[in-house]
Amino acid sequence: MGFYSRLRDGRNDDEALQRCIENVVRKLDEANDPRRPGMLLGKIQSGKTRAFLGVMARAFDTGFDVAIVLTKGTKTLANQTVKRIGRDFKEFIEGDEIVLFDIMSAPNDLTRSELNRKIIIVAKKQKNNLDRIFEFFNKYGNLAGRRVLLVDDEADMASVRFTKKKDDNDIEQGTIASQMDQLRGVLPGIAFLQVTATPYALYLQPENYGEDEQTQTVFYPKRPAFTELLPIHDAYVGGDSYFGGHGADDPRYYLHVEVDDHEHDALRSADGRSIRGDRIWTSGNIKVLRRALMTFLLAVAIRRRQQTALEQPPQKYSMIIHNDTQRAAHDWQWETVGRVVQAFEEAAKSGDDRLRILFEEAYADLQSSVEAEGGYLPPDAEALEDVRRLIDDGELNVQRVNSDQQLEPLLNQESGELKLRTKANIFIGGSILDRGITVLNLVSFYYGRNPKRMQADTVLQHSRMYGARPKADLAVTRFYTSRGVYDRLAQIHSLETALRDAFESGAHDQGVVFIQSDDRRGIIPCAPNKILLSDVVAVRPNDVLLPTGFDTVSATKLIKATRQVDALIPPNCVGGKVFVEIDVETAIAIINAIEPTLDWSAEGGFEWEAMRALVRYFGAKADGKVLLLAEEGRRLDRRHSGDRSGLSILGTAELRDLVRDSARQAPALVLLKQDGGADLGWKAGPFWWPMLASSANATSCVFATKLST
């Protein structure tokens, strides 16, 4: 039996994964050109490592002799990759069929027997590591003539980097990218496979790669010659769960818990005035963090009760606090969380009623989602006793994770995953917790990173809450972040989904239109490699774009402005659940009249220019027509107004079906008149809520609100 057939049977790969692996190896064979890299495109924590190890095994069956795996530039991740390969390929290594090593700890002299085996080299993407690879092939010159598979894991990290030369307008590649190009040039039998979940830096590369006449340097293309999509298994939880829009009868509706920006800021630096030690129970600056810690303990208790009832082994669980990149901030968060845990311990021993009150808040929160999922919820008295026991027994373990030196001892030596030492584990850290580090049974994620420029690929790699999750785990999972960060993440998810849809259709070059607005020329095409990925609005076919997270302006301003909107809406389209045809300029006038009626906090906002630009763009494709639908008498509570998909805001199934009708050929402007008012959490009312719905035959469109220079 071949390498892959044995690996496949040992891992029990399903048919979809087997087809994916076979397709990748076949396409790499057909390309047979280092200038034509292939792409294995997965999602965050969707099994990409499992897939490319299968590709390596199958490639060995088809005549490849050497595989080089490049990992993200940390020693920890390189070690984790070696361990993972060693575990999956254990039979082949022990049977003297494969030699595996990290390039920085390669054997001094490989024997002739070892050189005749298949060889796997792991190297982190760092200059000295890649230099060692060149030295290795120079030392064993005959290997350079064999077929080599280069696997670039997290291919958009370091492998693609262009900078301006000092005092010059010319562009040069970064060191790692240049070294990889050199490697592809000196090994004639090399095939190149890129592996990532965030391909934007690769797909949005300029087309004019080639020989630089002045430096005679060849920039090998990184833009993939083919893309093979990694199949997503049924247990996968990703952006659709967090940002897809779900009703109150779905446990995913309850995933996001909003955190005030002041709380995130208070956790960035030690300041006794913001979080006083004698106000751990009452400080508003850790209000959500305090509740998040209790909810995490309760989630652990509920899941372990559920597992015991089903005669399953009770699991250990984890929580991540990723609020900042600075180690000083991690120390402050660790100290603050430690104070809260100490307060919990003292309250559990003394019977302090504040612990019970906080527990009741957490219980009411999780009760909604557990019941929506249909799972077993232990009585509150039993659950409280379980939480007290977790605290009393020291089962809540808090650890900092912010450097290789601190991370290595925390890893399981066999799997390379973070060890869960107790029943409830909290990891506090920064960027080292993103790519490649697996955190098992994650049910709580407190996230406060809020850079001025939020890069789509970087932020998605922070999303450790993605991955294979049991539905029962998802019902007790919570994601704590600010409204502004949540909205940006949802925006990035929209971009990812639009691009992935295009990749799946096989038309990623033509299937997505990048546009921007220009005051002089209207809507114009936009070079995709020029966009700032954190400043885009993406709309797919049969998709909805709408403002969320706002309040109304004051009653005095609102009444006058709403009357102006009323005057622009044709009477025959109000309340009849039918579309009325209007022209683009009327649609724009309605949007302009609604804009001043909605108000955001400093962190919120909506790209009104994107809505107007997309009305013009989609309307031009429909002979200048826009369909208008207006409904009155809506009474949505402001607390439930954050659904960026618009599905729950549309309300009834009848209205959702009408808006998402696949037969509709023109864009639709949908207006929902909300009663508003203080009893529903709004500053005033009534007001009009606008949505732009693209047609089913529309082209996926990315509107760039800003361009890079």
Features:
709 residues; globular; alpha/beta; 7-stranded parallel β-sheet; single chain; 6-stranded parallel β-sheet; 38% helix
Write the layout of secondary structure elements.
Blueprint: H1 3-11, H2 15-31, E1 38-41, H3 48-61, E2 66-71, H4 75-88, H5 90-94, E3 98-102, H6 112-115, E4 118-124, H7 127-139, E5 148-153, E6 162-164, E7 171-173, H8 175-186, E8 190-196, H9 200-203, E9 226-229, E10 236-237, H10 239-243, E11 256-258, H11 261-266, H12 287-309, E12 317-322, H13 327-350, H14 353-373, H15 380-392, E13 396-401, H16 404-407, E14 424-429, E15 442-447, H17 456-461, E16 467-468, H18 471-474, E17 478-481, H19 483-505, E18 512-518, E19 522-525, E20 536-539, E21 544-545, E22 551-552, H20 555-568, E23 580-583, H21 584-594, E24 598-599, H22 608-620, E25 625-634, H23 647-650, H24 653-659, E26 668-674, E27 687-693, E28 700-704
Parallel strand pairs: 1-8, 1-9, 2-4, 2-5, 3-4, 5-8, 11-17, 12-14, 12-15, 13-14, 15-17, 18-28, 25-26
Antiparallel strand pairs: 6-7, 10-16, 18-19, 20-28, 21-27, 22-24, 23-25, 26-27
Helix pairs in contact: 1-3, 2-3, 7-8, 12-14, 12-15, 13-15, 20-21, 21-22
Give a quick rundown of the structure.
This protein has 709 residues and is α/β, with parallel strands linked by helices. The protein contains 24 helices and 28 strands. Helix 6 (112-115) links the parallel strand 3 and strand 4 (118-124).
